[in-house]
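Think of the structure tokens as a kind of shorthand, similar to the way a musician reads notation: each symbol stands for something richer, in this case the local conformation of the backbone. In the example below we present two proteins back to back. Begin with the first one, reading the sequence and then the tokens, and try to describe in your own words what changes along the chain.
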Amino acid sequence: MGEYSVDQVAARVDHAVLKPEMTEQDVRSNAAMCLERRVASMCVRPCDVALAAELLADSAVMVSCVLSFPHGADAAAVKIAQAERAIADGVQEIDMVMNIGQFLSGNHDFVRADIKGVVDAAHARGVIVKVIQESCFLTLDQVAAACVLSLEAGADFVKTSTGFGPSSATPEIIDVMKRVVGDEMKIKASGGIRDWATAVAYLDQGVDRLGVGATATVLDGGVSESEY
């Protein structure tokens, strides 16, 4: 296992502020923590992008948001509209959920076009796109196929999980992502990262970002009891 400083791990963290019960004050307090700990980004719900952009303005902490979360089942045109709204509100990175049901139905052309619509809207404004597979619903062969669709659609990252599914990132899933698209795309492990050892193990595997809900606890060497 590699040696990482707290600052090095923090710089790979997308801090998740996504629970449905979170209030405006929760967004504000989490933004303060993100600024203090110097994480890569604060990942918020679409309705919170404008506030997050205000709170994180003139800092190195980026604003990221989820899109079509957590099921990926919005119509393609709605996803594009969501992306455009988030970009107008100040988002810098978008974590979109792949249409899981369409993928499992074998409608891969639909899924590729669905992703590409968001990618095209985002890249036109210099915004990064991460594609969440919700890999817990997929076999490892399906993870590989979903990675290829994301690559073909022009996305920047593949990402394991929303954190709201029945399971989260696993080393086996990351191994497949690295093998299939690791030379051409970045990888984000998300969900279930509740302690330092898990975080650095994924970094050792070569992931570029970590989706973490209990960021302060993880960075301080504790173990989070949160389900996310």
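Once you have a description of the first chain, move to the second and do the same.
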Amino acid sequence: MATLDIGPLALPMSRALILAAGIVALLVGAVLGQNKQESVTDSVFFVLFAGILSARAAFVLSYWEQYRSDLIGIIDIRDGGFDPIIGLIGALVLLGWQLWHQPAIRRALSGAAAAGLLTWFAGALLTGLIQPPAPTIPDTALTRLDTRMTTLPQLADGKPTVVNLWASWCPPCVREMPVLEKAQQENPDITFVFVNQGEQPETIQRFLARHGLSLGNVVTDTGASIGRSTGNRALPTTLFYNSQGKQVNTHLGELSAASLTHNLERFN
């Protein structure tokens, strides 16, 4: 289960679990603090913030080569670039400091932290247990811009494959196209396929010409069947398949150069 779908909103499961853990920690901290007339809300918030900040900083440092030419991208967390291990360490360090220096809130804060960690661990364990076998690359009929028919396995040709689901009316899809275009040019050993969801070839050709994009393997899925069959209706979504055609990751939302590089490393 890669995403949590709430109506039209799709949230990556990893972020949904962190959000749930944070909410539980805040609620438990509020209840325990109220019993002792001690507020731990601010302390819980700072621990969560320390974890997020640490996770982001570690990811940015790991991919500094990609961020150095896009400093604004450092604070654009929509690319999903976080190091969860460093984030957990950062949160625990601040938690330990607060427990040591603020004995008055020690019981409430430790209870809130335990509840949050338990929620995160239980959610991660549950989603891991119900995780289905790795999906294979879908064999959906697709239309090339010259109207010839093809399929993803034919385009993949036994190589690791990146499948980008997009549409011309989707702003984040448009923003990430140059990043994907550059990656396609720099990684000839990886197949990149751009699967437009629901639009006609003429619309796609006008879009590519208007934005000056030179992309290979642009196809259209006029019925948006791949999004439905893979459970990824939100755009943009990028699917990563190894050379055996097994899905190794999903990225929901806009890709940055750093987050794309991070995902491509799974092929190594």
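Compare your description with these statements about the second chain. The longest strand covers residues 191-197.
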